[in-house]
Amino acid sequence: MGEISFETAAYAKMILHAAKYPHCAVNGVLLADATKIRDGAKNQDVDIVDTVPLFHHSHYLSPMAEVALTQIESVAQANNRIIAGYYAACENFKDNTVDKCPGQKIAEKIAEHFPSAVFVVIDNRKMMQHLVTAAMKLHNFSEGKWKPIDHNNVLFHSRYVLDTVSHLLQRGVQKDLVDFDNYLDDLSQDWTNLGIEKLIASINASNTIDCKED
């Protein structure tokens, strides 16, 4: 498996989604930089630049998933991005395995189109430990199964990512996150979560300035 790297916003949206609905299973898709992707290649490096929260109660409604994926793919292509993976958090706090996650058919469909697809399982038990370690387990699709990825192959673009996400949680930003369930209930809501992206960019800029001053 090649290296998997995450932008701060991509990791943050996954964690905020799980934190907004701690009593529910949640899921979403990962978007990669399409300019760095080799068509049809397996085991290539994947740069996850964004994530799109999907559902917290419509996991098993295929029409909803089709609508969501069609819209996401259209916006992704316009921004030189590709659907490159899937994330999920289980409803039960102790369940942190692929088998217990919702919407596995969505993940497998993504893997059919993108052989180097990544499946992220949010590790519920680490959700409160962001200053120590990332709360996720990564997998890739091999021989018909989702298999764990060595954590040495996982990178973050910023060394401040865990601090940033912890700061967002402390500020309660998770309440502002919009998933597709929210969007389908109210079409005026922004499922791209541009406002949260801008907030993260502002925090990242502040961290960079502080680093230079040190």
TrEMBL record:
| PROSITE patterns, A to Z | MPN
- Write down the superkingdom of origin: Eukaryota
Q: State a GO cellular component annotated for this protein.
A: EMC complex
Cited InterPro entries: EMC8/9, MPN
Domain MPN residues, every copy: 4-142
Q: Which spans of this chain does the record mark as coiled coil?
A: none
Return the similarity comment: Belongs to the EMC8/EMC9 family.
PANTHER family associated with the record: ER MEMBRANE PROTEIN COMPLEX (PTHR12941), ER MEMBRANE PROTEIN COMPLEX SUBUNIT 8_9 HOMOLOG (PTHR12941:SF10)
Q: What is this protein called?
A: MPN domain-containing protein
